[in-house]
Backbone:
């Protein structure tokens, strides 16, 4: 189980706190994010915790294509997070707008509003893909940190 | 399929002008075309005498010179009656039916926001569903509406 | 009058947080409630006009990820009616099968969410664990856990093999056993019953007047279910009970949904055992002749309605969608009348709203005062649990008990 080993490795170094935000999604990605927390995938055993406020979070996990109504809320949440902070776009909609690309009420992707650190495509992104994406992000940050130390 | 023709006949008996304006495409579906002047009385009759006690939704349509408003009513036995109004697009005024169906509130606001209908008698309230900063007078569901490129970078 | 809200960060008069709910309190009692909607408005109806019917099958599926099959089936039914297509019986049975599987996953999801809202988190963990049984079945049948893509205009895109049918029946046995356990908890555990009873009351008269649909309406004694009253797909050929209840409150809504789970298992067994042979789809021309149709579907949340108008081209003239939550949201204000702020999370969760509840903002104002504080959903959630703990309803023990029993 290579995935488990990878996760346990960085969990020892860092256990990120995440905040989940839905920017107008159909909820499919949201329930897969929550499913990642439940017993079968159980992301919590790796130290990943879902927090309620952006002020305590390291990673902003976002779903949805960003509707016009919610755009400034998204920015506000991002601004409230302390540095260092990272954004994960979960689902094809938050990567590029998905099926809603071109709709009049939609920005078509989170990176149109805030900088994104990792993209996890899928419609919806499965819990395995979500865990994999978050692990990849954190592994790449570890590498960066090591590089900076040298 | 005896109920639908009965309903059709009752409506024509009460409102002679509906003769030829009612069609039954299949079981449990009745469509009727009405004029704004007698609309409220038809709704009241349908609700009180024909037991169409549920308003499912109101569909707004852009039909070129007119705006169409399709009121979908339903009864306990599953029969749906859809009553249509056609109003001149230059002055698309309709009266609220929240007096009969309080739930009509949100559907009527949707008509105002997306199609530019003017609903008389609707109490003060927030717009739905467009965002607060959406320009007034911009009706996305109208056929001649064009998406403003680059106009939405707030 | 003591203040009840917890302010979040500095309040700048210039910064306006778009909030979704606005509550006026007198002490802790809710005097006025209003919801601001539109956060999820993506302009789907317009987008449907700009895409072909086939593309719209996939677009409507993504109106809501939890009841995606409901929307795509409702849409496809309307188009098939306009085009006067005779959909093969086997396809109708498969649509019904997926529809009931969707109802199961949605109700189990709801059970977990409701548990979470009152502080009964073990229920969330275990009901979502059981829900994975259904997700596996759906992934096996359709290739995806959510957003199944099973519908096409004229039928369905995949067939069910005898081997898969066997697995489905096995899964139904497992889930039925587990659901019986949840029903037992709901009918025997006083902490849960106390917490949910008398909360979010909606009288039968108000439910009818305000146009409530689905389990929300049925828990107030409104005997209405599109599957029975206006049958579609294969529902005319299966036997099932419409579950109603007379508690008129959140407890009633819980019982109704659990009853519907049991019925869903029964419907699925009938579907599997009586599935007719034959093709799973017929070819339908790309251009749909001019016409209109109204299609209804009993989604897990209630009646879903699609109106489609065709104009002889490959793209629809108009697609109107009325999702069930829109009908039910108008009852929430009535349900919260004279209740306290601590009831807000579970009352809203009990209508099973189709917007993500993880980050809603509530504006709370004391009657007579002009300034307002904004509470995040998470804080409202914590406040609500703390309030009830102080009033004698604590789920700590029940959480421990359930964890021990279900291990």
Residues:
């Amino acid at each position: 189980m290579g995935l488990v080993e990878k996760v346990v490795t960085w969990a020892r170094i860092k256990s990120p706190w995440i905040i989940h935000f839905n920017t107008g999604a159909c909820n499919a990605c949201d329930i897969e994010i929550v499913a990642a927390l439940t017993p079968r995938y159980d992301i919590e055993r790796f130290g990943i915790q879902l927090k309620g406020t952006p002020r305590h979070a390291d990673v902003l996990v976002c779903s949805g294509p960003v509707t016009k109504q919610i755009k400034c809320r998204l920015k506000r949440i991002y601004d409230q997070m302390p540095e260092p902070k990272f954004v994960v776009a979960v689902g094809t909609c938050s990567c590029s707008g998905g099926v809603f690309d071109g709709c009049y009420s939609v920005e078509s992707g989170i990176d149109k509003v805030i900088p994104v650190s990792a993209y996890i495509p899928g419609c919806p992104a499965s819990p395995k893909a979500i865990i994999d994406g978050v692990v990849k992000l954190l592994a790449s940050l570890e590498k960066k940190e090591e590089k900076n130390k040298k | 399929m005896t109920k639908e023709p009965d309903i059709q006949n009752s409506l024509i008996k009460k409102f002679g002008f509906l003769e030829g304006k009612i069609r039954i495409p299949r079981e449990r579906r009745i469509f009727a075309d009405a004029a704004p002047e007698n609309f409220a009385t038809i709704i009241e009759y349908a609700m009180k005498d024909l037991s169409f006690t549920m308003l499912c939704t109101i569909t707004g349509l852009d039909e070129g010179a007119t705006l169409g408003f399709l009121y979908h009513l339903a009864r306990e036995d599953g029969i749906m009656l859809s009553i249509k109004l056609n109003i001149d697009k230059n002055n698309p005024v309709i009266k609220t039916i929240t007096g009969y169906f309080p739930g009509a509130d949100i559907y009527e606001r949707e008509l105002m926001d997306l199609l530019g209908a003017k609903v008389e008698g609707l109490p003060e309230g927030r717009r739905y569903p467009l965002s607060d900063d959406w320009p007034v007078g911009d009706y996305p569901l109208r056929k001649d509406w064009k998406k403003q490129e680059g106009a939405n970078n707030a | 009058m003591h203040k009840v809200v917890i302010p979040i960060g500095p309040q700048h008069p210039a910064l306006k947080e778009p909030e979704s709910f606005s509550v006026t309190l007198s002490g802790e009692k809710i005097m006025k409630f209003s919801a601001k909607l539109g956060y999820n408005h993506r302009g789907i109806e317009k987008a449907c006009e700009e895409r072909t019917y086939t593309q719209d099958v996939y677009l409507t599926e993504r109106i809501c990820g939890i009841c995606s099959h409901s929307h795509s089936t409702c849409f496809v039914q309307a188009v098939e009616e306009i085009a006067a297509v005779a959909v093969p019986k086997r396809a109708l049975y498969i649509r019904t099968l997926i529809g009931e599987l969707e109802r199961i996953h949605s109700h189990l999801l709801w059970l977990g969410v409701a548990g979470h809202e009152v502080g009964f988190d073990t229920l969330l963990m275990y009901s979502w664990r059981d829900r994975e049984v259904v997700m596996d079945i759906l992934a096996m049948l359709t290739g995806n856990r959510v957003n199944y893509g099973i519908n096409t205009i004229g039928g369905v895109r995949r067939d069910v093999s005898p081997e898969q049918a066997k697995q489905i029946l096995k899964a139904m046995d497992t889930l039925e056993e587990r659901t019986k356990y949840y029903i037992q908890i709901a009918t025997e555990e006083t902490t849960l019953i106390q917490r949910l009873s008398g909360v979010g009351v909606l009288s039968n008269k108000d439910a009818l007047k305000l146009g409530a649909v689905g389990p929300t309406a049925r828990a107030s004694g409104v005997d209405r279910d599109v599957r029975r009253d206006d049958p579609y797909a294969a529902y005319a050929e299966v036997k099932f009970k419409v579950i109603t209840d007379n508690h008129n409150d959140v407890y009633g809504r819980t019982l109704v949904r659990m009853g519907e789970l049991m019925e869903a298992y029964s419907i699925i067994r009938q579907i599997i055992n009586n599935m007719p042979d034959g093709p799973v789809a017929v070819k339908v021309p790309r251009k749909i002749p001019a016409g209109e149709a109204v299609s209804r579907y009993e989604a897990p949340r209630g009646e879903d309605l699609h109106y489609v108008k065709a104009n002889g081209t490959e793209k629809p003239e108009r697609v109107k969608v009325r999702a069930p939550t829109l009908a039910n949201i108008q009852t929430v204000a009535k349900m919260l009348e004279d209740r306290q702020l601590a009831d807000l999370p579970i009352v809203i969760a009990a209508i099973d709203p189709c917007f993500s509840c993880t980050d809603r903002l509530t504006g709370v104002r004391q009657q007579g005062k002009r300034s307002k504080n904004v509470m995040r959903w998470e804080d409202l959630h914590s406040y609500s649990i703390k309030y009830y703990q102080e009033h004698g309803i604590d789920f700590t023990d029940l959480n421990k008990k359930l964890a021990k029993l279900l291990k």
Notes: Helices of chain B lie at 3-14, 36-48, 104-115.
